[in-house]
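2024-03-11 09:14:02 DEBUG pipeline.ingest accepted 1 chain
2024-03-11 09:14:02 DEBUG pipeline.ingest length=188
2024-03-11 09:14:03 DEBUG pipeline.predict start
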Amino acid sequence: MNTLIKIYNSLSSTVSHMANGAVPLLARLTFAAVLLHYFIASGLTKLGDGLLGFLSPSVGAYAQIFPKAMEAVTYDISQLTVFHWAVVTGGTIAEFALPALIVLGLLTRLAALGMIGFVVVQSLTDLFGHGGIEHAGTLGAWFDKASDSLILDQRALWVFLLATLVFKGGGWLSLDRLLTRNQSASAA
């Protein structure tokens, strides 16, 4: 029996050591497979015309991010403030930049933390700005048999995936690791 426990402990130690690099890499790959295209597609709906379209977001961008304010001004963005423009422009840029940084494994912890903030704001906007709080299926409930609610179920998994990257970094095959390795080599 002691031999089995020693073998188990040895294997557990090896797996734990490998997890430090493998888990964050798998988290980044999962993010790329499940959420990257979602955020890119969403960001594309917010772009205005031309090469600098991110600086003049579409009417739809304002309607997605500030639905009640847009209704109040009958969808005339010229009546909104520079604050609205800054939030929509910053959100649009973040919707492209943060996922790209995560997939590349560059500034992974900071990008994942930014994405957590993004998902929280997105969820609150969906609940209170778009009225999702009034629909039990959209809000959902934890510890029930349904696992497909938009906010509490899906977004909790997104945040957990991103929190893994905040705590563990980019893992193997990340630009963070490459830059850290180069910095360590030049310091020695």
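2024-03-11 09:14:41 DEBUG pipeline.report The chain is about 75% helix and 0% strand.
2024-03-11 09:14:41 DEBUG pipeline.predict end
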